[in-house]
Amino acid sequence: MIEIRLFGPTRVRHGERSFEAADLGGGKPRQVLEMLALAPGTLVPKDLLAERLWGGTPPASYIATLESYVCGLRRRLGLACGRGAALATLNKGYVLDPDQVRVDLPAVRAALASGGPAEVHDVLDGVGGSLLASDPYAGWAEDERTSFDRDVTAACQRVARAADEAGNGSVAVDLARTAVRHSEFSEAARQQLMRALWHAGERTEALLEFADLRARMLEELGVEPGTPTQDLYVAILRDGGEAAHREVDRTELGLLVRLLREALESGVRVDRTARASLSEVGTMLLDACSEAPRLDVAYVTSAR
Length: 304
Known about the structure:
four-stranded mixed β-sheet, Arc Repressor Mutant, subunit A, 304 residues, 3 domains
């Protein structure tokens, strides 16, 4: 069995022999093996390999060059030739035999697609580095990393939602944070994190997640978060009224005041009912300020 690891620097193990990225005959031969390893059992045409390998402008002699790369890989790894080989030539392309080659990426994707919270957490904890780390600048490799980030985001949202519904707040927050790290502009991922924090009793942190998303979107994309994200933000902010009656430290109270003012003065869409509720929250926060005299009461009043 041949084992190929694509997370972190590319590594290959064949029997008792181990091969690092530098042992595979150079950058392009290594990339050929990586492209085939992305989907064992799938035939990859030589034309497609060349398109990716040379960034859309392969040399006229690319067929002969590709064949020399594959021959070199077989020689270095001790692989046989023929249709039944681990690295086989078929129909003007190449394919890795999944019965003879095991790759870490398909196993990770399978676990992400069907695993529960614990399995998803464990598999991400064990990947051992970024995907295709040996190719930080290749366009095709960046496309694969983007695709994998989407898979991670979707999986973490799914299991974070399940953990949240089961009352496992810390697990839900951890998985939702992972989803956001892999897709910082995903509003669905940020909504899941906001809900998980809110349900875990971290209301202020949930509100700050919206503030961070809004700032990033305005700076990088020039747009506000969408209506569902804004509605969730307003719902969490409205829920702050109950907390204003309990003892709140000055730092948290100050953050709530700032966020309330932003909700009323920014582009966040607030209907009349919600605005009335937010005004009530402002009154409660103003009452709370009497317990924390170092806060600027006029600032709270202006937020109303």
